[in-house]
Design goal:
The complex is a heterodimer of chains A (797) and B (294).
Chain A: H1 6-10, E1 31-37, E2 43-50, E3 60-62, E4 87-88, E5 94-100, H2 103-111, E6 113-119, E7 151-159, H3 162-167, E8 171-179, E9 191-197, E10 204-209, H4 214-225, E11 232-236, H5 249-264, E12 268-271, H6 274-280, E13 287-295, E14 301-313, H7 319-329, E15 338-347, H8 361-379, H9 383-390, H10 410-421, H11 423-436, E16 440-452, H12 459-463, E17 466-471, E18 477-480, H13 490-502, E19 509-511, H14 530-548, H15 558-583, E20 595-600, E21 609-610, E22 615-616, E23 622-634, E24 639-650, H16 657-676, E25 682-683, E26 686-687, E27 706-711, H17 728-731, H18 733-745, E28 751-752, H19 756-763, H20 784-791
Parallel strand pairs in A: 1-12, 8-28, 10-11, 14-15, 18-19, 24-27
Antiparallel strand pairs in A: 1-5, 2-4, 2-6, 3-5, 7-15, 8-13, 9-10, 9-12, 13-14, 16-23, 17-18, 17-20, 21-22, 23-24, 25-26
Helix pairs in contact in A: 4-5, 7-8, 8-18, 13-14, 16-18
Chain B: E1 2-4, H1 9-18, E2 22-24, H2 38-41, E3 44-47, E4 57-59, E5 63-67, H3 72-77, H4 79-84, H5 86-93, H6 98-103, H7 106-112, H8 119-125, E6 129-134, E7 137-142, E8 147-149, E9 152-153, E10 160-167, E11 173-179, E12 190-197, E13 200-206, E14 213-214, H9 216-223, H10 235-241, H11 252-267
Helix pairs in contact in B: 9-10
The chains are: A alpha+beta (797), B alpha+beta (294).
The complex binds flavin-adenine dinucleotide.
Chain lengths: 797, 294
C-alpha cells in the first residue's frame, strides 16, 4: 500500500504548524512568541532589565509569576522549571516569554532584555567528581553514601558470580568507549500554536503543534496551568520528523505558548528557527562505557562487568529511562552466565539531554560491539566466530535473566548479512587493496545486536493504552488512537491493519488526527511501540467492532461489515426517532453516539519483571540484527567514507516493505552521521556549532547504497506478528563502522564520532599533544574514578 | 531594507558614490541568517541584476573576461570556458548546490572575502586581476594583491567589480582540491588550487589563513625543484605561508597537516623531486589483519 499522506508531502501541500494561521475569532491578531534565555550555565538571577528604548506596552511579557499551577514541566522528576525563577542551570534555559504581532520587533525585543545572573560554578564533565559547591542534586539526603552527588539515577543488574568467573578466566579484556551527543535534525523545527476557546471558568486552552505525544503535552499543561483535562485540549499537527526530539520537549513549548495566550487572550504562535532549535532542544546523551570481560581459552564469555555513565544535562528529563534501556542492552545479544552492570546518569550544566531514537541502547551497543572486536583482536579470533560462539540460543537468558525462547534463528541473520556483504571475499580483496594503494585503506566491520520493542518491563501495563475503532454512518470506519504520524508511516500502517482486519478497502478506513478531545490515550509514539503494540490494539478494536455488530471474529466479508455498520446506524436513527416521538420533548437531536469497537492493553501472559532488582522479562520481544559496513579511509584527509552497507534484521513480520525499508535506510543514514561527522563544539555546555553548515549531517552524496533484508518470525502479540523496528538502524551503524575503520587501519577506535580530526589523532598522533584517546593503562579501568578522570576530555567541553 | 534597482552601470555607480549603499549580486552571502541579522535590515542595497554591463563574459584569444555578475552556472554551462579554464568549473561545481551555483557570482565570492571561498583560489591560481570601477574612474588590481587582512580589501565602498580578467596561458598542471566535512554542501576546511605555466608555479590555499592566500614559500620549493620525500617535508615551507586556526569547523593542526598531505599527494606523481626515497615510504606500511578468516 502506498503512503496515504505521501502525495501531499511530496507536493508541498501538507500543512505543518508554521503554515497554519491561528484562528482569530474576534480576539484580535495572532501574536508571535519568543523566548528570552539564560546566557550563563549556572547561577542566580539577580535582575531582569528592560531597555526603556522599547515600548514594552506593545508586548505581552510572561515570567514565572504568571504560571497558575506548578512551575515544572511534568515528567519523571518534575524538576525542570517552565521558566527559571531565581536560578538557572544551563545556557539557553528559558526565563522570560514575549509575544508581539511582528517577528522582527520580537527579535529586537529579545535583545533588549538584560538578565543579570550571578554565575556559580558549573559542571561540564560528569566524569570528574563535583566539588561541594557544584552539587546541585542529591543534597536533600546529606548523609547518603558518597558518590550520590548529582546522580539522577543508578541502576544495577546482577547475574551469577562475576568475581568468581574472573578468578577462573583464561583471558580478561578491558576497554572504555565513548559516544558523543547527537541532534535529531528533524526537518521541521519545534513549533506550537496556543489559543483559548470560550470564556471564564469554562474556557479551554487549545494547543496544536508538532509533537509525538499529545497526552504528555496535555498532562504537562494541566500541571503547569492547574487545569482539568476537560479544559486542556492538545492536537497534533502534521509533524515533520521527531526521532524522540518531540517526545518530551514540546511540553515546555506548549506551556510557554499557552501562558502567553492566556495572558494576551489571543492566539500565540511559537516556532523555533533552526538555530534556536539546535541550541535549546534536547539531544542524545553522551556516554562512557567501560567493559571488563572474562573469557575462557576458546573465547566463550565467562563474565561481563560493565560500567555506564551518561551525561544527563541540567534536568532529569527522561534520563532514567534512557539509562534503563542502555543498561538492559549493554551486554549485547550474548550468552553469559555472570553479568554485572552498573549504570548512572549524572547532572551537568549542559542543555538537558533527552529522548533520541534508540534511547540509550545505541550508546551501550556501540561499546559492546566495539569491545567484541577488541576481544577478537586480543585473543586472535575471527570477529564473526567470536560472536557466533557466544550468540544467544533459545533457552539461554539475557543479562536481566530473561529467557529467550522465540524460535528465531539468530545465526541465520548473521549468515545472510555476511553473504549479502560478501564479507570473506571483501576481507581478502581489502588486504590486496591496502597493500598497493598509497593513500586509501579499506576495511569491513560488523555489529550483531538486538533491540527490545515497546516500553521496558511493566511500562506497557502502566500505560494502560486504549484504542477505539468507530463505525461511521456511511459504512466507513475511523481508527482513533493517540499514535502520531511523523514521517514513519503510522497512518498507512494503521490503515492497512484495520483494512485487513475488517476486509475493507483502505479508502474506507479513516485515521483520526490525534486530538486529546477525540481520541483515547493509546500511549506515546515512542520506543517502536506503535505498529507492534498500538497496531495490535487496533486489530483487537476491529474485532470488538465486529462483535458489537454481531459478526463473528472472522468469516464475514468487508461488504458484510460495511452493511452491518450502515444497518446499525439506520436502526439507531429509527430508535432515536421513535424515542423522540414518544417523549415529544421537541428537543435538539443529539448527534449519534458512535458505534465503537474498543481495546485495552493486556500484557502477554507469563511476562514477569522485577523493577527492584532489574530482573526478568525486560521486553515482550526483541528484534535481532546484523549490520555490515564497508569503509574507505583517505589517508590524505583522514576522512572515512562508508562505501557499502548491509542491514539484515529479524523483525517478526514486515507490515509494509517500503516503509520498513525506509525506516532502516533512514536510520542507517542517521547512524552514519553519528558515527562519522556529527560532532559538537561545546561552549559553556551548549552547542556552539548550532548551524547546519557546522553541524554536519550526511548528504545523499555521503551515504552508500544501503542494502536491507528482513527475516520474519511472527511475534504472537504484535500486529500481524510484527515487532518494533524503528530504533534498530540507530544501534548498528556506529559499531559496524568503527569496526570497519579498525580493520582498515589496524587501529582501535574507542569513541565516536570518528571525524577526520579524531582519526588523524588516532592514525598519526601528535606526540606532544598529550590527550589520550583511549586509556593506555588497563589498571586504571579497575578504579572508576581514575578511569573517569582519564576520559574526562573525550568530548571536551 | 531598502533596495535600489538601477538599470545601468552609471546609475549604480552614482548610487554607490552618493551613499553607503551595498551592492547585491546573487545575495547568497548577504542574505545568510537574514532574520537574525537585524542590523542588516536597516541598510540600503543596490541590486546589480539588471545591469547588462555586468552580465555575460567573453572568452578571447588572450584572456577570459568574467563580468561583475557572472555566475558559477554561467561557467559550468559553457564548454569552451570549461576547457580553457577547467579549474573554474571544478570549483564552481563544489559551491553549495545548483540553487547557489545559479545565483552566486564570482565577484560576490571575491568581495565577501571569506577565507574559505572556493571561487577565489582558482581565480588567483589563474592570475586573475580585477577591474574596479567607480564614478572616480577605473582601477586594475591583481587578485593576489586584493586582500589585506581578514575581510579587508583594496576596494572602497563605492567601487564595483566590473570584470575579472584571466590571462590565457598554457598550463601543464591545474589542480583544485576542496576538503570539506562532507561531500557536498560543505564549507571548505582546507583546500588549494595549483597551476604551472610559462610564468611558473602558483599555489593558492584557502581556509588556512585570514584570507585566501598565495603560498610563495611552497612555490619556491617547487620552482627550485627541491626533493620532498614525505608530506611532512612541505611543512617548513607551508608554515611560512599559512596561519591556520581552530574554529567551529576544524583545528589548526588538522588544516596544517592535511594541506601538506593533499598537496604532496597531488604533486608526488607530477614532480620528479617528490616521492618516497628508496628507503622510506611516505605512509608506513600497515600491518594488515592477517588472521585466518574462518
Ligand atoms: C547554502 C549556501 C552554500 C554555499 N556554499 C558555498 C561554497 O561551497 N563555497 C563558497 O565559496 N561559497 C559558498 N556560499 C557563499 C556564496 O554563495 C558565494 O560566496 C557566492 O559566490 C556569493 O555571490 P553572490 O553573488 O550571491 O554575492 P552577494 O551575497 O550578492 O554579495 C556578496 C558580497 O559581494 C559584494 N558584491 C557582489 N557583487 C559585487 C560586485 N560586482 N562588485 C563589488 N562588490 C560586489 C556584496 O556587496 C557583498 O559584500 C554558499 C552560500 C550558501 C547560502
Amino acid at each position: 500500500m502506498k503512503r496515504r499522506e505521501g502525495l501531499a508531502k511530496l507536493t508541498g501541500r501538507e500543512r505543518y504548524v508554521d503554515d497554519l494561521r491561528p484562528s482569530v475569532d474576534g480576539r484580535g491578531r495572532a501574536l508571535w512568541a519568543a523566548t528570552v534565555r539564560s546566557s550563563v550555565a549556572r547561577g542566580r538571577i539577580r535582575s531582569v532589565r528592560f531597555d526603556p528604548a522599547i515600548d514594552w506596552d506593545a508586548f505581552v511579557v510572561v515570567d514565572h509569576r504568571d504560571i497558575p499551577g506548578r512551575n515544572v514541566v511534568k515528567l519523571i522528576a518534575d524538576d525542570q522549571p517552565v521558566l527559571a525563577a531565581d536560578r538557572v542551570r544551563h545556557v539557553h534555559e528559558p526565563i522570560l516569554l514575549l509575544a508581539h504581532p511582528s517577528r522582527s520587533a520580537l527579535r529586537r525585543a529579545v535583545r533588549a532584555v538584560t538578565i543579570d545572573i550571578e554565575p556559580e560554578s558549573p559542571i561540564f564533565d560528569v566524569c570528574v567528581p563535583p566539588t561541594p559547591e557544584q552539587v546541585q542534586h542529591g543534597t536533600d539526603h546529606p548523609h547518603q553514601e558518597p558518590g550520590q552527588e548529582n546522580v539522577f539515577k543508578r541502576l544495577a543488574v546482577d547475574k551469577g558470580d562475576v568475581d568468581a568467573a574472573f578468578a577462573a578466566a583464561a583471558h580478561i579484556v578491558d576497554g572504555t568507549y565513548a559516544t558523543g551527543s547527537q541532534e535529531h535534525v528533524y526537518l521541521e523545527p519545534q513549533g506550537v500554536i496556543a489559543h483559548i476557546e470560550g470564556e471564564g471558568d469554562d474556557d479551554v486552552v487549545v494547543v496544536s503543534g508538532s509533537m509525538q505525544c499529545p497526552f504528555y503535552v496535555q498532562g504537562a499543561l494541566m500541571m503547569a496551568l492547574d487545569r482539568e483535562a476537560e479544559r486542556v485540549r492538545v492536537v497534533q499537527t502534521s509533524t515533520g520528523g521527531g526521532f524522540g526530539g518531540k517526545e518530551e520537549f514540546p511540553s515546555g513549548l506548549a506551556i510557554h505558548a499557552a501562558l502567553l495566550a492566556l495572558k494576551a487572550r489571543r492566539p500565540v504562535k511559537l516556532i523555533y528557527d533552526r538555530g534556536e532549535d539546535l541550541e535549546a532542544s534536547t539531544k542524545r546523551h553522551p556516554s562512557w562505557v567501560r567493559h571488563r570481560t572474562a573469557l575462557d581459552a576458546d573465547g566463550r564469555l565467562l563474565a561481563q562487568d560493565i560500567d555506564i555513565v551518561m551525561d544527563a544535562g541540567a534536568y532529569v528529563t527522561l534520563s532514567p529511562v534512557v539509562l534503563s534501556r542502555g543498561v538492559i542492552h549493554a551486554a549485547g545479544p550474548y550468552r553469559c552466565a555472570n553479568v554485572r552492570i552498573r549504570g548512572r546518569c549524572v547532572l551537568s550544566n549542559r542543555v538537558p539531554f533527552g529522548a533520541f531514537r534508540g534511547f540509550g541502547a545505541p550508546q551501550t551497543l556501540f561499546a559492546c560491539e566495539r569491545h567484541m572486536d577488541r576481544i577478537a583482536h586480543q585473543l586472535g579470533l575471527d570477529p564473526v566466530s567470536l560472536r557466533r560462539v557466544n550468540l544467544l540460543r533459545d533457552g539461554d537468558s539475557t543479562a536481566t535473566s530473561q529467557t529467550i525462547r522465540d524460535g528465531s534463528d539468530r545465526s541465520a541473520v548473521i549468515d545472510q548479512a555476511l553473504a549479502m556483504a560478501g564479507w570473506y571475499e571483501k576481507r581478502a580483496a581489502h588486504r590486496a587493496f591496502n597493500a598497493t594503494e598509497p593513500w586509501l585503506r579499506r576495511g569491513i566491520g560488523l555489529a550483531v545486536f538486538h533491540h527490545g520493542a515497546g516500553f521496558t518491563g511493566s511500562g506497557e501495563v502502566y500505560l494502560d493504552s486504549r484504542v477505539a475503532v468507530a463505525g461511521l454512518p456511511d459504512g466507513r470506519v475511523e481508527v482513533l488512537t493517540a499514535a502520531t504520524e511523523m514521517g514513519q508511516g503510522t497512518i498507512t500502517v494503521f490503515t492497512q491493519l484495520a483494512a485487513d482486519r475488517l476486509g475493507l478497502p483502505p479508502e474506507d478506513v479513516l485515521i483520526a488526527q490525534p486530538d486529546t478531545a477525540r481520541v483515547p490515550d493509546s500511549g506515546p509514539t515512542v520506543a517502536s511501540r506503535t505498529a507492534m503494540i498500538v497496531g495490535r490494539l487496533v486489530e483487537r478494536a476491529c474485532d470488538d467492532l465486529r462483535d458489537r455488530l454481531g459478526l463473528g471474529p472472522e468469516a464475514s466479508s468487508g461488504d458484510a461489515v460495511r452493511r452491518a455498520i450502515i444497518a446499525w446506524h439506520e436502526d439507531y436513527a429509527r430508535r432515536e426517532q421513535s424515542s423522540r416521538d414518544e417523549t415529544r420533548d421537541g428537543g435538539v437531536a443529539t448527534s449519534a453516539p458512535p458505534l465503537l469497537g474498543q481495546a485495552r492493553y493486556q500484557a502477554p501472559p507469563g511476562v514477569l519483571w522485577d523493577d527492584e532488582r532489574y530482573r526478568g522479562d525486560a521486553y515482550g520481544a526483541f528484534a535481532w540484527a546484523t549490520y555490515v559496513a564497508e569503509v574507505e579511509v583517505d589517508l590524505r584527509t583522514y576522512s572515512a567514507r562508508v562505501i557499502d552497507f548491509v542491514a539484515v534484521q529479524e523483525i517478526g513480520k514486515v507490515l509494509n516493505e517500503v516503509l520498513a525499508r525506509g525506516q532502516i535506510q533512514g536510520g542507517v543514514v542517521q547512524g552514519i552521521g553519528w558515527a562519522l561527522s556529527e560532532s559538537f563544539v561545546w561552549r559553556d555546555g551548549a552547542m556552539a556549532n548550532a548551524q547546519l553548515t557546522n553541524y554536519v549531517i550526511p548528504t545523499s552524496d555521503d551515504v552508500p547504497s544501503i542494502r536491507v533484508a528482513f527475516q520474519e518470525n511472527p511475534y504472537p502479540h504484535g500486529a500481524q506478528g510484527a515487532k518494533g523496528i524503528g530504533e534498530l538502524p540507530m544501534d548498528g551503524p556506529g559499531p559496524a563502522i568503527a569496526n570497519a575503520i579498525a580493520a582498515a587501519l589496524d587501529v582501535d577506535p574507542c569513541e565516536i564520532p570518528l571525524t577526520p580530526e579524531t582519526l588523524m589523532d588516532l592514525i598519526d598522533p601528535i606526540v606532544d599533544d598529550a590527550s589520550p584517546l583511549c586509556d593506555a593503562d588497563p589498571a586504571l579501568n579497575n578504579r572508576p574514578s581514575a578511569t573517569e578522570g582519564a576520559h574526562g576530555g573525550l568530548i571536551g567541553s | 531594507m531598502k533596495l535600489l534597482l538601477p538599470s545601468a552601470l552609471d546609475e549604480a555607480l552614482d548610487m554607490l558614490a552618493a551613499s553607503e549603499a551595498i551592492p547585491m549580486a546573487g545575495g547568497t552571502d548577504l542574505m545568510v541568517h537574514w532574520p537574525q541579522n537585524l542590523d542588516a535590515h536597516s541598510r540600503t542595497y543596490v541590486d546589480l541584476s539588471r545591469i547588462d554591463a555586468l552580465r555575460g563574459y567573453r572568452l578571447g584569444a588572450d584572456e577570459l573576461v568574467l563580468g561583475g555578475a557572472t555566475t558559477y552556472w554561467d561557467v559550468i554551462e559553457d564548454a569552451a570556458v570549461c576547457e580553457a579554464f577547467p579549474m573554474l568549473a571544478r570549483a564552481a561545481r563544489q559551491v553549495g548546490a545548483i540553487q547557489i551555483q545559479t545565483r552566486g557570482t564570482w565577484a560576490g565570492n571575491i568581495v565577501n572575502a571569506s577565507p574559505a571561498a572556493d571561487g577565489v583560489p582558482v581565480l588567483m591560481a589563474y592570475d586573475a586581476s580585477l577591474e574596479l570601477v567607480s564614478t572616480r574612474g577605473t582601477e586594475i588590481v591583481a587578485l593576489a594583491d586584493f586582500y589585506r587582512g581578514y575581510k579587508q580589501m583594496r576596494r572602497t565602498h563605492d567601487q564595483l567589480i566590473r570584470a575579472i580578467r584571466l590571462p590565457r596561458r598554457s598550463y601543464t598542471i591545474e589542480h583544485f582540491e576542496k576538503v570539506g566535512a562532507r561531500k557536498a554542501q560543505a564549507i571548505t576546511k582546507v583546500g588549494f588550487a595549483l597551476t604551472r605555466s610559462e610564468v611558473g608555479w602558483r599555489v593558492v590555499a584557502n581556509s588556512v589563513a585570514p584570507t585566501v592566500c598565495r603560498c610563495p614559500a611552497v612555490e619556491e620549493v617547487l620552482t627550485s625543484e627541491r626533493t620532498v620525500s614525505a608530506p611532512e617535508g612541505l611543512l617548513p615551507a607551508l608554515d611560512q605561508d599559512i596561519a591556520p586556526i581552530d574554529d567551529l569547523r576544524s583545528t589548526a593542526a588538522y588544516r596544517r597537516r592535511v594541506l601538506a598531505r593533499v598537496l604532496y599527494a597531488c604533486l608526488a606523481p607530477l614532480c620528479p623531486g617528490f616521492g618516497p626515497s628508496k628507503t622510506a615510504s611516505p605512509i608506513p606500511p600497515l600491518a594488515g589483519p592477517d588472521e585466518p578468516d574462518r
